[in-house]
What does this fold into?
Amino acid sequence: MLSDNLARYVALHEALGFSFRTQRILLRMFVANAERHGDNLIKSDRVVAWAVEAPSPEQRRNRLLTARRFAIAMHAEDCRHEVPAVDALGRGLFRRTQPYIYSGEEIGKLMEAAASLGPAGALRPLTYFILFGLLAATGMRISEALALRLSDITDDGLIILRTKFKKSRLVPLHPTTRAALDRYLSSRLTICANVESLFLSNAGTPPRYDTVSALFRQISRKIGLRGEPGQSGPRIHDLRHTFAVKSLEQCPCNADAVSRHILALSTYLGHAHVADTYWYLQAAPSLMAQVADIAEAFGQTGAA
It folds into this structure.
């Protein structure tokens, strides 16, 4: 019964254009757990018990909220389904992972390490050199970069079609970035011209996300940015954070300029809501100092 309900719930969201991958995986785990206990209806205590099995507070809360949204939809059809309280695990605020802001020197070392990968003369070192450089220079998501095709490269920049929120956008390229990309294309098309994907492994197939992430961690350890395996450290996604923070640091320190800049940056990064972009203001002391100065000016004069 719950499995049938879940199938309808997932199908509805996918029909509306949502990828719904993570939610689908979590809800299948929850439904399997509930059905092992003989549940035909959603029970609040079962949701909470399943949620607290997650290894971190963030994951526990995500489990709770995902199952709660499913419960709300099912309760609308059958009031016997229970909806757990939104604060069933407490009212602790969600805390994002603190981003690492790379220096220009560190990005250079990452790219140099990528270029030195073996085997010599193969496509692999070229691919990772330009991939990491493109992420740093554009702020693209790694998933967007890996999905790029040759036809997505235009005179005006890169067309991002496979976005997180199903929104296509154009990403202009700095002349130096475009020149580096063109040099990669010259080698890439010589080695393998009959595959549409922009980035290729030595096998002639697009690199997998987990392969890229593992290699990034390996290179980061090699140049001293991360500790031993298993220890936390700078992530590949932090290249996107770095791009956003460096962009905001170039903005004049006045409220109107910041508002315009953040709106443009939100569009450029492909954020679903401009509020997601405001979070980057917290990522660097220099940005927080600007926010504090504006707030102080407003408190003294009533105008920022």
